[in-house]
Amino acid sequence: MTGRRRLLSIDRALLAALLLIGAALFAFFKLASEVGEGETMALDRAILIGLRNPASPAGPRWLTEAMTETTAFGSVTGLFLVTSAVIGYLLISRRHRTALFVLLATGSGTGAAKLLKLLYDRPRPSLVPHLVDVSSASFPSGHSADSAIVYLTIAALLARTVPERALRLYILGVAGLLVVLIGVSRIYLGVHWPSDVVAGWTFGAAWALGCSFAYSRLWARQGLPEVEKR
Hints:
Layout: H1 2-36, H2 41-51, H3 61-71, H4 76-92, H5 96-120, H6 142-159, H7 165-188, H8 194-221
């Protein structure tokens, strides 16, 4: 009976993971379709103008500084440093397979997000002044997608090493909050439409969920613990 219950539990977890991945991908492509048809523009404009007072285009100095510093956590440099630190830790602790997985998962995910930018080629918003320099296309938000891919993937792997449910939720919650703040900072800085950011979140979350699922299935199929021990 115990064995059957365990199999049922695994099957349910597998189904839930696949449903979540499918839902996130559906949300991304649905949003991409609506953006292409211009159906999100009214709401995009309302939110963007609502966050930035037309009478003070640059916003309060303290808030601009906070948003600029927050957005750096989703920059190429910021994510590279975080990923390098995590991979370095995994290599030192002799978790070589996990280190390779993190490298491949984050590298391929951020590369896919860049390809989507080239595919959709949406212009950046021009309703308010940009408070940081940008040069690439707008959809989906690279900061939002890349930060979701990197932070959620790493958090999901880290959470597997912690036995306490409360700590697992804390790790995932902190990662999720950071991803949300990075996305909001892109809207406030005037360099992304809100729909760009939501699309980045959904794509990044789908990728991170897929990587977490693949990691679990790969290690289980090989009869290995999901996180190697020294």
